[in-house]
Amino acid sequence: MKIRTDFVTNSSSSSFILGFESMDHVEETLRNEICKNGSGCEQYFECVYHDCIAAETMNKEEMIEYVIDTEIKGEIEIDLWDTWIGEQTGYEYFEDYMKSDEYKKNEEKKFKEEREKLELACGNNNVFVEVEYGDYDILGLSDALEYYIVPNLDCCIRWFSHH
Protein backbone atom coordinates (compact mmCIF):
# COMPACT_ATOMS: atom_id res chain seq x y z
CA MET A 1 0.00 0.00 0.00
CA LYS A 2 1.26 3.46 -0.87
CA ILE A 3 0.76 6.37 1.49
CA ARG A 4 0.94 9.86 0.11
CA THR A 5 3.14 12.07 2.28
CA ASP A 6 3.40 15.22 0.19
CA PHE A 7 0.84 17.99 -0.31
CA VAL A 8 -2.69 16.85 -1.13
CA THR A 9 -5.42 19.27 -2.12
CA ASN A 10 -9.10 19.18 -2.83
CA SER A 11 -9.15 22.68 -4.22
CA SER A 12 -11.80 23.99 -6.51
CA SER A 13 -12.30 27.09 -8.54
CA SER A 14 -14.63 29.06 -10.74
CA SER A 15 -13.93 30.87 -13.98
CA PHE A 16 -15.67 34.06 -15.01
CA ILE A 17 -16.05 35.76 -18.36
CA LEU A 18 -15.98 39.53 -17.84
CA GLY A 19 -16.97 41.96 -20.56
CA PHE A 20 -15.86 45.55 -21.13
CA GLU A 21 -16.56 48.20 -23.71
CA SER A 22 -12.81 48.34 -24.38
CA MET A 23 -9.58 47.65 -22.49
CA ASP A 24 -9.47 51.37 -21.74
CA HIS A 25 -12.64 50.91 -19.65
CA VAL A 26 -11.48 47.98 -17.50
CA GLU A 27 -10.11 50.03 -14.61
CA GLU A 28 -13.06 52.42 -14.40
CA THR A 29 -15.66 49.65 -14.76
CA LEU A 30 -14.09 47.43 -12.10
CA ARG A 31 -13.46 50.28 -9.67
CA ASN A 32 -17.07 51.47 -10.01
CA GLU A 33 -18.51 47.98 -9.60
CA ILE A 34 -16.23 46.55 -6.91
CA CYS A 35 -15.91 49.71 -4.83
CA LYS A 36 -19.51 50.93 -5.07
CA ASN A 37 -20.13 49.94 -1.44
CA GLY A 38 -17.23 51.88 0.03
CA SER A 39 -14.18 50.91 2.06
CA GLY A 40 -12.32 47.62 2.08
CA CYS A 41 -12.55 47.17 -1.66
CA GLU A 42 -9.11 48.22 -2.84
CA GLN A 43 -7.38 44.84 -2.52
CA TYR A 44 -10.24 43.10 -4.33
CA PHE A 45 -10.21 45.72 -7.07
CA GLU A 46 -6.43 45.42 -7.48
CA CYS A 47 -6.61 41.64 -7.72
CA VAL A 48 -9.37 41.53 -10.35
CA TYR A 49 -7.95 44.47 -12.28
CA HIS A 50 -4.49 42.92 -12.57
CA ASP A 51 -5.97 39.54 -13.53
CA CYS A 52 -8.03 41.21 -16.28
CA ILE A 53 -5.07 43.13 -17.64
CA ALA A 54 -2.93 39.97 -17.66
CA ALA A 55 -5.63 37.81 -19.30
CA GLU A 56 -5.83 37.06 -22.98
CA THR A 57 -8.57 39.15 -24.56
CA MET A 58 -11.35 37.84 -26.78
CA ASN A 59 -13.73 39.64 -29.06
CA LYS A 60 -17.46 38.91 -28.86
CA GLU A 61 -17.50 36.06 -31.40
CA GLU A 62 -14.38 34.43 -29.91
CA MET A 63 -15.91 34.59 -26.44
CA ILE A 64 -19.21 33.10 -27.57
CA GLU A 65 -17.46 30.24 -29.37
CA TYR A 66 -15.21 29.65 -26.34
CA VAL A 67 -18.16 29.48 -23.94
CA ILE A 68 -20.10 27.20 -26.27
CA ASP A 69 -17.13 24.85 -26.71
CA THR A 70 -16.04 24.73 -23.07
CA GLU A 71 -19.34 24.78 -21.21
CA ILE A 72 -22.54 24.89 -23.21
CA LYS A 73 -21.95 21.73 -25.29
CA GLY A 74 -21.79 19.62 -22.13
CA GLU A 75 -24.72 21.43 -20.51
CA ILE A 76 -26.89 20.81 -23.57
CA GLU A 77 -26.03 17.12 -23.65
CA ILE A 78 -26.94 16.82 -19.95
CA ASP A 79 -30.17 18.74 -20.50
CA LEU A 80 -31.16 16.56 -23.45
CA TRP A 81 -30.23 13.44 -21.44
CA ASP A 82 -32.44 14.61 -18.55
CA THR A 83 -35.33 15.21 -20.96
CA TRP A 84 -34.81 11.90 -22.76
CA ILE A 85 -34.26 9.72 -19.66
CA GLY A 86 -37.86 10.21 -18.61
CA GLU A 87 -38.87 8.15 -21.63
CA GLN A 88 -35.98 5.70 -21.94
CA THR A 89 -33.25 3.98 -19.93
CA GLY A 90 -29.65 3.09 -20.57
CA TYR A 91 -26.82 5.19 -21.93
CA GLU A 92 -26.24 2.84 -24.86
CA TYR A 93 -29.69 3.83 -26.16
CA PHE A 94 -28.92 7.49 -25.59
CA GLU A 95 -25.86 7.15 -27.82
CA ASP A 96 -28.19 5.95 -30.58
CA TYR A 97 -30.56 8.84 -29.85
CA MET A 98 -27.63 11.27 -30.15
CA LYS A 99 -27.23 10.16 -33.77
CA SER A 100 -30.89 10.79 -34.58
CA ASP A 101 -32.36 13.75 -36.46
CA GLU A 102 -34.58 14.50 -33.45
CA TYR A 103 -31.54 14.89 -31.16
CA LYS A 104 -29.73 17.07 -33.70
CA LYS A 105 -32.81 19.27 -34.07
CA ASN A 106 -33.17 19.67 -30.29
CA GLU A 107 -29.44 20.30 -29.90
CA GLU A 108 -29.45 22.94 -32.64
CA LYS A 109 -32.42 24.68 -31.01
CA LYS A 110 -30.67 24.79 -27.62
CA PHE A 111 -27.42 26.06 -29.14
CA LYS A 112 -29.36 28.87 -30.82
CA GLU A 113 -31.10 29.77 -27.53
CA GLU A 114 -27.80 29.80 -25.61
CA ARG A 115 -26.05 31.86 -28.28
CA GLU A 116 -28.88 34.43 -28.14
CA LYS A 117 -28.60 34.60 -24.33
CA LEU A 118 -24.85 35.19 -24.56
CA GLU A 119 -25.25 37.86 -27.23
CA LEU A 120 -27.84 39.63 -25.09
CA ALA A 121 -25.61 39.40 -22.00
CA CYS A 122 -22.76 41.02 -23.94
CA GLY A 123 -24.61 44.32 -24.21
CA ASN A 124 -22.27 47.00 -25.57
CA ASN A 125 -19.15 45.12 -24.53
CA ASN A 126 -16.53 44.40 -27.18
CA VAL A 127 -13.65 42.94 -25.13
CA PHE A 128 -13.86 39.86 -22.93
CA VAL A 129 -11.47 38.15 -20.55
CA GLU A 130 -11.57 35.02 -18.46
CA VAL A 131 -10.42 35.15 -14.84
CA GLU A 132 -10.36 32.34 -12.30
CA TYR A 133 -10.68 32.32 -8.52
CA GLY A 134 -10.79 29.51 -6.00
CA ASP A 135 -9.73 28.42 -2.57
CA TYR A 136 -6.01 28.62 -3.17
CA ASP A 137 -4.55 32.08 -2.59
CA ILE A 138 -2.26 33.13 0.23
CA LEU A 139 -4.02 36.43 0.94
CA GLY A 140 -7.43 34.80 1.37
CA LEU A 141 -9.11 36.94 -1.28
CA SER A 142 -10.24 34.17 -3.62
CA ASP A 143 -13.20 32.87 -1.62
CA ALA A 144 -14.77 36.32 -1.48
CA LEU A 145 -13.95 36.95 -5.14
CA GLU A 146 -15.26 33.55 -6.26
CA TYR A 147 -18.54 33.52 -4.36
CA TYR A 148 -19.51 37.10 -3.53
CA ILE A 149 -17.77 39.72 -5.61
CA VAL A 150 -17.06 38.63 -9.20
CA PRO A 151 -20.35 36.73 -9.86
CA ASN A 152 -22.27 39.84 -8.81
CA LEU A 153 -20.42 42.28 -11.06
CA ASP A 154 -22.52 43.76 -13.85
CA CYS A 155 -19.62 43.03 -16.21
CA CYS A 156 -19.73 39.29 -15.37
CA ILE A 157 -21.14 37.62 -18.49
CA ARG A 158 -20.74 33.97 -17.47
CA TRP A 159 -19.68 31.92 -14.42
CA PHE A 160 -18.23 28.38 -14.73
CA SER A 161 -17.96 26.38 -11.55
CA HIS A 162 -15.16 23.78 -11.52
CA HIS A 163 -16.27 22.16 -8.26
Describe the structure.
With 163 residues, the protein is an alpha+beta fold. Helix content is 53%, strand content 13%. It is built from 6 helices and 3 strands; from the N terminus they run E-H-H-H-H-H-E-H-E. The protein has a 3-stranded antiparallel β-sheet with strand order 2-1-3, with helices on both faces. Helix 3 crosses helix 5 (101-122). It is elongated and about 55 Å long.
Brief summary:
With 163 residues, this protein is of the alpha+beta class.
- Widest sheet: strand order? 2-1-3
Kindly report the average pLDDT value: 86
**Individual helix count:** 6
Q: What is the helix content?
A: 40-55%
Q: Termini, distance in Å?
A: 29 Å
Shape: elongated
Q: Which residues sit in consecutive blocks of at least 5 with pLDDT less than 50?
A: 1-9
Largest sheet: 3 strands, antiparallel
Report the sheet-strand fraction.
Answer: 5-15%
Structural class, from helix and strand content?
alpha+beta
Question: How many beta-strand segments?
Answer: 3
List the defining traits of the structure above.
elongated, single chain, alpha+beta, 6 helices, 163 residues, 3 strands, three-stranded antiparallel beta sheet, disordered N terminus
Secondary structure: elements and pairs:
Elements: E1 13-20, H1 26-34, H2 42-54, H3 60-85, H4 91-98, H5 101-122, E2 127-134, H6 142-149, E3 156-161
Antiparallel strand pairs: 1-2, 1-3
Helix pairs in contact: 1-2, 3-5
